[in-house]
């Protein structure tokens, strides 16, 4: 006889995608029973779902498909979203603090004013994502793809940018950085002068000499060499 009984995960997905308020009550009830309760929604298909204001705190959404979903104001703090598909998702003002977004696909996602403090974005694809006003302080952005991302007014203080790809367009001109990052960027700028195909102008030579003492404080100068 065929067993048509739905699994716990299937029932949870039905509640979450059908009625966010009911889901939030369910989460509150589970937390009262077990304070460290974490919903397992790994590999779930939640694409193009209305999940705005959903409480998914601490949930396992690894490899889940959330492409095109509305996650505005959602509580995604501490959530495991590693390798999740978040293309075109609306995460405006969502709480993603301490979330694991390693290897996640966030290309063209709306992350305006999102809280990404302490988030793990190692290897994440943020190409063409709108991160304007987002708080990325102390986030791990190593190996992250930030090509064509909008970082206007984004707070990157104390974020790890090693091996990431910062966009060189108007959308990155107003990003908030710290001294460590500015030394890192200055080192790369000075390297461009040193390795120029053209003979440097007198103005460029003066700028390079003025830049070197600051650039040589780059945190990887021992590895890359003093200029």
Summarize the structure in words.
This protein is mainly α. It has a domain at 183-224. The chain has helices at residues 8-18, 20-33, 179-194, 202-215, 221-224. The radius of gyration is 21 Å and the shape is elongated.
Layout of secondary structure:
Blueprint: H1 8-18, H2 20-33, H3 179-194, H4 202-215, H5 221-224
Helix pairs in contact: 1-2, 3-4
Cα-atom radius of gyration: 21 Å
Q: What is the N-to-C succession of helices and strands?
A: HHHHH
Sequence stretches where pLDDT stays below 50 over 5 or more residues: none
The major pleated sheet works out as: none
Q: Quote the average pLDDT.
A: 96
* β-strand amount: under 5%
How far apart are the first and last residues' alpha carbons, in Å?
A: 75 Å
**Class from secondary-structure proportions:** mainly alpha
Number of helices: 5
Share in helix: 25-40%
As an assembly, this protein is single chain
Q: Count of DSSP E strands?
A: 0
**What is the molecular shape?**
elongated
């Amino acid at each position: 006889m065929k067993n048509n009984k739905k699994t716990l995960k299937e029932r949870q997905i039905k509640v979450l995608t059908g009625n966010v308020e009911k889901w939030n009550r369910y989460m509150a009830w589970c937390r009262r029973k077990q304070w460290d309760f974490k919903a397992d929604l790994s590999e779930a298909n939640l694409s193009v779902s209305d999940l705005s204001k959903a409480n998914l705190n601490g949930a396992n959404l690894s490899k889940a498909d959330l492409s095109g979903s509305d996650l505005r104001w959602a509580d995604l703090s501490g959530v495991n979203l590693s390798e999740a598909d978040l293309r075109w998702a609306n995460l405006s003002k969502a709480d993603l603090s301490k979330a694991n977004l390693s290897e996640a696909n966030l290309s063209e996602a709306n992350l305006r004013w999102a809280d990404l403090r302490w988030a793990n974005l190692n290897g994440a694809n943020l190409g063409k994502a709108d991160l304007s006003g987002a708080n990325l302080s102390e986030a791990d952005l190593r190996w992250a793809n930030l090509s064509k991302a909008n970082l206007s007014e984004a707070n990157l203080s104390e974020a790890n940018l090693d091996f990431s790809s910062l966009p060189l367009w108007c959308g990155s001109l107003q990003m908030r950085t710290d001294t460590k990052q500015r030394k890192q960027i200055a080192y790369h700028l000075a390297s461009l002068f040193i390795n120029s195909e053209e003979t440097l102008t007198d103005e460029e030579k003066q700028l390079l000499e003025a830049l070197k003492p600051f650039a040589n404080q780059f945190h990887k100068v021992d590895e890359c060499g003093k200029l």
